[in-house]
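Hypothesis: this fold can be encoded by more than one sequence.
Test: take the structure tokens below, design a sequence, compare later.
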């Protein structure tokens, strides 16, 4: 009887661990998915920033407008690079709750970076000369 109880406790513990691990993996995947969707925009942002620079060089009257858009794009690129440098998906020694809190915060931060990138690129493209 004692062995049966220990077996059920072991199975219960493993099932709980598997569930927690699945939660961590799911949330990590959500964070990485946002990142992966935004990375292709980095090239487009670079090209748009270069086009804005050319436009600013060609039109001194509108230079400040182009420069402001270039700065927003540069800030968004920097935000992505900072997030990538700071993101640590392999945290050891943290409790499940701490891990989930960290990943929730990272998802929120990555979504803010994604919004910043999308908005800056949209604005930059809209300001390019036709």
């Amino acid at each position: 009887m004692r062995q049966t109880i220990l077996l059920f406790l072991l199975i219960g513990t493993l099932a709980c661990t598997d569930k927690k691990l699945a939660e961590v993996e799911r949330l990590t995947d959500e964070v990485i998915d946002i990142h992966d969707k935004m990375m292709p925009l980095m090239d487009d942002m670079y090209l748009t920033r270069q086009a804005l620079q050319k436009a600013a060089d060609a039109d001194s009257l509108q230079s400040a407008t182009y420069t402001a858009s270039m700065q927003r794009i540069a800030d968004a690129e920097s935000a992505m690079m900072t997030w990538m440098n700071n993101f640590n998906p392999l945290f050891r020694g943290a409790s499940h709750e701490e891990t989930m809190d960290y990943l929730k915060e990272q998802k929120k931060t990555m979504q803010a970076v994604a919004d910043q990138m999308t908005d800056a690129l949209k604005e930059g493209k809209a300001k390019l000369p036709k």
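The CA atoms of residues 66 and 127 lie 7 Å apart. The chain has a mean pLDDT of 87.
Hypothesis status: open.
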